[in-house]
Design a protein that fits this description.
Blueprint lengths: L8 H28 L4 H9 L18 H14 L1 H21 L2 H13 L3 E5 L15 E5 L2 E12 L6 E12 L5 E9 L5 E3 L13 E12 L3 E2 L5 H37 L1 E2 L2 E2 L4 H29 L5 H25 L10 H8 L10 H11 L3
Parallel strand pairs: 1-4
Antiparallel strand pairs: 2-3, 3-7, 4-5, 5-8, 6-7, 9-10
The structure holds flavin-adenine dinucleotide.
Length: 384
């Protein structure tokens, strides 16, 4: 058993590079994109040039030959300053491209991965429907095989990266028949963008993640070739759940970054801001609040490092990933609340990073499985 959580030189160097990028390139435009609710194309282009969208994929498929943990480290650094940018990368890699890497045929991998890994194109992951979120098996979208093509009809809700100028692919789950036991047979199918009958409806007006792209999608007689089936027919739902198990580790890393960003901003502010003739951080009430925030970050980071280590070692990691998602989402939300309190009235002003974390962090207790879903997963692993 290895208990060593120190980063290697290579990991430290990656983290430092992205930390500088986040500080010098991302942070200066974050307020603008949040306020104007615009997608940060220039930032995403530069992330593509840095190879960030290809981090966990092999070089022969256009990737950087790194691993999932490298992606997590990058997400932490980006999320400290801008959760919208971090979720754009997280969804692009772990939801957009990873299903093809894990379950795609060689031809599908050759066609899509170099493009998605370059960051010049984005893929989206279409599981949630207006009537099927936590209960994602309640999929109603259908795909019927007609003359060598899938005809897809239905709708999806809340799909990240699905309507940008860079979006080239949406992978969807759809009911393709009935199993021998009378249940829905759910498969996943690749839908290139644009395809006739596919529409990304107008973007949602969200509470946070304003610079991230999220749309409802409609599929009206969309036809794609039979070979666009991803993985085995009938395995679509199971395969997507596997992708979500992994994705929970990435979203935990993003949450840890957000929670850490709140600590960093609060420490700095508590040293600078004076009240009653001394820095507010010299009051134990403030210092203890920030110390507790730091403790939350430490616990959540340790939890996701553990889940990632198990996943990379090929060990079962479902429970650990759910626990990491649970504690990291709560750490981000709790730290955002405490950080705005430390900042007083300024914490309520949108140009302060902590105010953005306050609005952005709520979704970390909902997206990629709500807190209640994580508790269900953990309880199930305990045989309850
Ligand atoms: C900004 C954003 C981006 C997203 N990106 C994507 C994406 O790229 N792809 C994608 O497929 N989806 C995406 N989602 C969807 C997201 O994963 C779902 O919103 C989430 O899984 C919850 O589903 P729901 O909204 O239908 O809530 P519901 O499932 O309706 O849940 C409502 C409430 O009931 C609780 N609940 C439900 N069932 C139970 C139960 N059995 N026991 C106890 N409590 C329960 C839930 O925890 C929640 O509190 C995104 C959502 C948002 C807001």
């Amino acid at each position: 058993m290895s208990l060593d959580t120190r980063l290697t030189d290579e990991q430290q160097s990656l983290r430092k590079t992205v930390e500088e990028f986040a500080r010098e390139v991302v942070a200066p435009v974050s307020y603008h994109h949040d306020k104007t609710k615009t997608f940060p194309y220039d930032v995403v282009r530069q992330m593509g040039e840095m190879g960030l969208f290809g981090l966990p994929f092999p070089e022969e498929l256009g990737g950087m030959g790194g691993d999932y943990f490298a992606l997590c480290l990058v997400l932490e650094e980006l999320a400290k300053v801008d959760q919208s940018v971090a979720i754009t990368l997280e969804a692009g890699v772990s939801l957009g491209a990873m299903p093809i890497y894990r379950f795609g045929s060689e031809a599908q991998q050759q066609e899509w991965l170099p493009l998605l890994a370059s960051g010049q194109a984005l893929g989206a992951f279409g599981l949630t429907e207006p009537g099927a979120g936590s209960d994602a098996g309640g999929t109603r979208t259908t795909a019927v095989l007609e003359d060598g093509a899938w005809r897809i009809d239905g709708s999806k809700a809340f799909i990240t990266n699905s309507g940008t100028e860079l979006t080239r692919l949406v992978t969807v789950t759809a009911v393709t028949g009935t199993t021998s036991t009378g249940k829905k047979e759910i498969s996943s199918i690749l839908v290139p963008v644009p395809t006739a009958g596919f529409t990304a409806e107008p973007a949602y007006d969200k509470v946070g993640w304003n610079a991230s792209d999220t749309h409802p999608l409609s599929f009206d007689g969309v036809r794609v070739p039979e070979e666009n089936l991803l993985g085995q027919r009938g395995r679509g739902y199971a395969n997507f759940l596997h992708i979500l198990d992994e994705g929970r580790i990435a979203i935990s890393a993003l949450s840890v970054g957000a929670a850490q960003g709140c600590v960093d901003a609060s420490v700095q502010y508590a040293k600078e801001r004076e009240a009653f003739g001394r820095p507010i951080g010299q009051n134990q009430a403030i210092a203890f609040k920030i110390a507790r925030m730091e403790a939350r970050v430490h616990v959540a980071r340790t939890a996701y490092y553990d889940a990632a280590a198990k996943m990379l070692a090929g060990l079962p990691f479902k429970k650990e990933a759910a626990i990491a998602k649970l504690v990291a989402g709560e750490a981000a939300m709790d730290n955002a609340r405490d950080a705005t309190q430390v900042h007083g009235g300024y914490g309520f002003m949108n140009e302060y990073v902590v105010s953005r974390h306050y609005r952005d962090s709520k979704i970390l207790e909902v997206g990629e499985g709500t807190t209640e879903v994580q508790l269900m997963l953990v309880a199930r692993e305990l045989g309850l």
